[in-house]
Specification:
Blueprint: H1 5-14, E1 23-25, E2 29-33, E3 36-40, E4 44-46, H2 59-70, E5 98-102, H3 106-117, E6 121-125, H4 133-137, E7 141-142, H5 146-152, E8 155-158, H6 163-171, H7 176-179, E9 185-188, H8 194-206, E10 210-213, E11 216-217, H9 220-225, E12 228-233, H10 236-246, E13 250-256, H11 259-289, H12 294-303, H13 309-320, H14 329-346, H15 353-365, H16 376-384
Parallel strand pairs: 5-6, 5-8, 6-7, 8-9, 9-10, 12-13
Antiparallel strand pairs: 1-4, 2-3, 11-12
């Protein structure tokens, strides 16, 4: 989206004078796009008085930042913006793209929403149109097939469940592959096997078509905040082309020369997620059996070098018995299996994976497939005979 300076000036003039004391803003630059406020991140020291913006530096940025610092109420008048929005990160520039999103689950739906919010043209497809309705109401266009998405898009993002689903939307009768123009890029953000990644990347390359594997780390919350982590693997020019879209929902991108390296990175991260969840559950249950309140242990972890945001958020969810899915048990089990397949190919030992995977298999068998992956701890609870929280 190309931000218009006049929009920024109008926003500045509309705000009321308020605070006169210096205000520290964490890397804030704000522009207006229609009824939306869009912001990016940069540290600025803003001070001033009345209607006079501070002098020095980039005058436009200073004026807009100073205006917003003076009157947070103004942020509440714009769609989807909270008063505390100045603390968050988002996208504010780099031009618009005709983008397509195929697969509108938890992640794909949020990506499409974020692309719309940041001014991109978005065409969507899902096996069931029902999931697309909220996005269509916000301005997305519906396509009747993945091929139609490809014909209308400069970057086609697919994010579906597994290699079989990727194969269907890519090489099926109405798939992306044959409809993709030489100028467009298919960016698959699904978590798939290394072997499948190698196959699809090679097929595109041999046909003279453009493909990038770009799995991600984070969830819906990070997408909507613009802080998702992206692992982009493929030809440098293709990755750069996709970055225009990724910047709508990501503030950190890692580039890899091959698609396989991107997939390997994602599987390595997801293995660690599974092991961390099992390790947290084990420690909380051990502490609880010894008379130590689980909340106390979570607090200790958060104050120590052992602390990780995941331990705090998942620990709190466990104690509240909140297993609403951000990442399904069945999907993480799939990724553990994909990691084992890749490890066999490279003759790499994964000594922790076998036990962790069996616990997730048990979670599936006990009916937790569509719960959050933290539900694996319920299997562990049943083994020791106590429940955390509740």
């Amino acid at each position: 989206m190309v931000s218009q300076p006049s929009g920024c000036v109008r926003l500045f003039r509309r705000l009321k004078p308020a605070a006169t004391s210096p205000v520290k803003i964490d890397r804030l630059i704000v522009v207006r796009q229609g009824s939306m406020l869009l912001w990016t991140t940069r540290r600025l020291e803003v001070a001033g008085n009345g209607d006079n913006p501070p002098s020095g530096g980039d005058n436009l940025r200073q004026r807009v930042s100073f205006a917003v610092a003076r009157d947070f109420q103004s942020l509440g008048q714009c769609q989807n913006v909270k008063k505390s929005v100045w603390k968050q990160k988002a996208f504010s520039g780099g031009g618009t793209l005709r983008t397509g999103v195929i697969g509108l689950g938890i992640m794909g739906g949020a990506i499409a929403e974020r692309l719309l919010t940041t001014g991109h043209e978005v065409t969507v497809y899902n096996r069931t149109r029902e999931k697309a309705e909220p996005l269509l109401a916000k301005g997305a266009r519906w396509a009747d097939s993945p091929a139609e998405v490809a014909r209308q898009s400069e970057v086609v993002i697919s994010i579906v469940t597994d290699p079989a689903a990727v194969e269907q939307i890519t090489f099926g009768e109405q798939g992306i592959f044959h409809a993709l123009s030489p100028q467009s890029v298919h960016c698959d953000m699904s978590t798939v096997s290394v072997a499948w990644t190698r196959h699809i990347a090679s097929t595109y390359r041999q046909a003279g078509k453009r493909f990038v594997q770009a799995p991600v780390l984070g969830g819906r919350k990070q997408i909507l905040e613009g802080t998702l982590l992206v692992f982009g693997g493929g030809a440098e020019e293709d990755v750069q082309h996709c970055e225009q879209a990724w910047r709508a929902f990501s503030d950190k991108i890692w580039r890899f020369p091959t698609a396989e390296q991107a997939t390997t990175t994602k599987l390595a991260c997801n293995m660690l997620i599974a092991h961390m969840m099992v390790g947290l559950g084990q420690s909380l249950l051990f502490a609880a059996k010894g008379g130590v309140p689980p909340a106390t242990l979570i607090d200790i972890l958060s104050k120590s070098n052992l602390g990780a945001p995941m331990y705090s958020t998942k620990g709190k969810a466990l104690l509240e018995r909140n297993f609403q899915a951000n990442f399904f048990v069945r999907h993480l089990l799939k990724d553990l299996s994909l990691a084992e397949d890749a490890a066999r190919e490279t003759h790499t030992m994964l000594p922790l994976n076998a036990l962790t995977r069996e616990l997730f298999v048990a979670a599936m068998q006990q009916g937790y497939a569509d719960e959050d992956y933290s539900a694996v701890v319920k299997v562990m609870e049943s083994l020791v005979g106590i429940q955390l929280g509740g």
